[in-house]
Amino acid sequence: MLTHKFRIAATGLIILILTGTLGYHATEGWELLDSFYATIVTISTVGYGDFMPRTTQGKLFTIVMILFGVGTMLYTVGLLAQNMVEGRLRVILGRGRLEKMIDKMSNHYIICGCGRIGHFIGKEL
Fold it and tell me: What are phi and psi of 49, to 5 degrees?
């Protein structure tokens, strides 16, 4: 199911952002907001150039962030775009409404299929 994939991807992206923020804070000694900013700039491939790791550990950490972060970011954004383009969000929201309506119903039957037997069952009910 696509929404399950999106949840997993979004969770991975959040974990990656938190890891990046804490990683830059630990390796470079930057403030948390600056570390968060550097993480977002790195994984979004914007690269303003105003923040740059100075330590060897920070540079190696940035390489790992680029390798994992860019792919994770693109995958998550791609799934979000696919949901929007295919209209799956509307379908999912519509299903929720339909399920609520069905839960409120009582003494109803749902006949799947409208062939010869389906017509016979409908008449009998």
Answer: 90, 0
